[in-house]
Fold this protein.
Amino acid sequence: MVASFQAFIDESTSDEEFVLAGHISTAEKWATFAGQWEELLPFGTKNKDGNYQFKMSAMALVPERMARVPNFYKIIEENVISSISCRINLRDFEVAQERLAFLATRMNWTVNLGPWTNPYFFTYRLLMDKFHAERKTFQSKFPLDNQVDFIFDERTEKKMIIRGWDEYIEKRPDEIRSHYGSAPRFENDQKFLPLQAADLWAWWVREWYEEDSDPVPDRLRDMDFGNWRGKKRPNIIISATEDGIVDVLQSVVADEFASGNYRLTTSEGPQAA
């Protein structure tokens, strides 16, 4: 029987960091998780509609709530196969765009990065590209003949991402195209409880990067939550440096020129790319 893997992903952001993070497990394990999580939700908070929910930012506001977080985390440990995170530093992201703009000005080019200036879109693409390009690294946990479907929390960017999915897949290298699952979905975290577990992880990953800007912060590597430590498990960590962000943006521009979507503007006038 072929296992069906699902990755549930949420975002956490501040003035310094942008993180997409969550967990991967089988559909069967996620079903077990949902039942256990729902039983514990009365120890979380309530949303504006009066329904119980887990929101890490709300839990962190009150010490009594924070003391209950390990109970939620234990359910994650019991049911997920791997955690996953993708992070960019927002200042690095800004400077990388400035560097590319400076290069374009010196070359008398006019470029429009479009959605790539959106930190959510950039981090989403970095996550999807890196995960699938390096699937062989994780094949002991996620065999290459088992695809992983990605489910994200609701975002306004979903229309743009879903609309461009077919074109995105067509442009993937032949050797990794089969690694991709179905088109990403964007769901409500009140109905899809694993998204609340992703919210917990994304919040902590962002906190750890704000304390330690290394590609892999010590506390992320050690799963050190301060008052408690998590059990070690596979943890897929993607972190872009400023130079790495520049490389991605340059490749985007090169691809657009190659496809004829951009034109070069020089001192002699417009030229077809």
